[in-house]
Amino acid sequence: MALPRRRLGRSGLEVTRLGIGLAAVGRPGYINLGRAHDLPGERSFESMYERSATVLDAAHGAGIGYIDAARSYGRAEEFLARWLDARRIAPGALIVGSKWGYHYTADWRIDAEVHEQKELSQARFDQQIVESRALLGDHLALYQIHSATAESGCLTDAALLAALVAGRRNGLYRALGLTLSGASANQALEQALAARVDGEPVFDTVQATFNCLEPSLAPLLAEAHASGLGVIVKEVHANGRLTPANTRPEDTGMRRRLSEIAGESNTDLAGLAIAFALAHPFVDVVLSGAATTEHLASHLAAMHLTLDGDARQAITNAAESPGEYWATRGSLPWS
Fold first, then answer.
1. Which of 26, 11, 28 is nearest to 68 (CA)?
2. Bridge partners of residue 7, in order along the sequence
3. Sign of the alpha-carbon dihedral angle for 36, 242, 16, 12
4. pLDDT at residue 276 greater than cutoff 90
5. For the segment 6-37, what is each residue's pLDDT rounded down to a tens digit?
């Protein structure tokens, strides 16, 4: 069955409602629970490329039309570029998004003290767009500020915003976006909605964390969608907390409640998380962070689930406060 497709806001990019993100397969260490099970054995450059290629092959074969990477996802852009070339996929056949702002600093170590270094400056943008284009070339359709925050000042930096818009006008990418993280994401999104250069809206898309445990951005994401922004949601499985890999004692009650709802909807916890996100009309793309083809198959199966109003309300009742959610996320280990 063909995957449903959408126009991604005013960008005009046509995407499938399920996309594939490469955060979990572009580098050896990440903050998803269950990685020792998902990635047993060595995590060399070549073995991680092979895992990336296997997941990308399965996604492409299933008709997934949006792929999401970032400069800071280890070798993700390099792996994606290598795969696109090996499969002889022409620019435009798939919609590719990437992100700038973080520099990968872990040196391919899982136990690195610092995995990423963030700088949302024009100098960092100028450097990283060259690096992204060198790898992805005309495949690069969407370029996003990685984890923009109001506190960083990037969304009110006139020179930076002008440089971002100039890149779009000059064809370095077709659309501009930003991604959001943290309990104050609503402030960043409000600034993004207001951002203009010569009267032209700066942003075409927003990518935000949105899941059963952290749905607080829903009203503002709906507003952003109505204003013309395409909406991509990430971390729908809450870094593994909404999957069978979660064995945290603190989450026992939550897992039990949500698993009961999932059973009543003929799915499992991971499927419920996908279905919950897709049930919101303002969501254009849900990112699968699959590290295995088994994960991806499960996520694809959930595309066809329908949650009734009682189920959606029961899930919403299980949500955490943004402060609690982001504090927990910040405590999860890289593994």
1. 26
2. 14
3. negative
4. yes
5. 999 999 999 999 999 999 999 999 999 999 99
Pair of tokens at residue 242? 């909404």
The C-alpha angle with vertex 21 and arms to 190 and 241, in degrees rounded to 5, equals 80
Residue 229 is given by DSSP the state B
Would you call 197 helix, strand, or coil by DSSP? strand
Q: What is the CA radius of gyration of the chain?
A: 19
Domains, the chain, with CATH or none: 15-321 (3.20.20.100)
At 176, phi and psi to the nearest 5?
Answer: -115, 140
CB 56 within 8 A of CB 83: yes
CA distance 205 to 221: 10
Query: Can you give the pLDDT at residue 2?
Result: 87
Q: Which helix (H) or strand (E) holds 7?
A: strand 5-7
- Please, which residues have CB within 8 angstroms of residue 189's CB and are 6 or more apart in sequence? 180, 206, 208, 217, 220, 221, 224
Residue 117 to residue 3: CA distance in whole angstroms: 36
Encoded tokens for 245: 């890999």
CA distance 37 to 295: 12
Q: How many residues does the chain have?
A: 335
Contact of 264 with 307, CB cutoff 8 Å: no
The residues near 61 (Cβ < 8 Å, ≥ 6 apart) are none
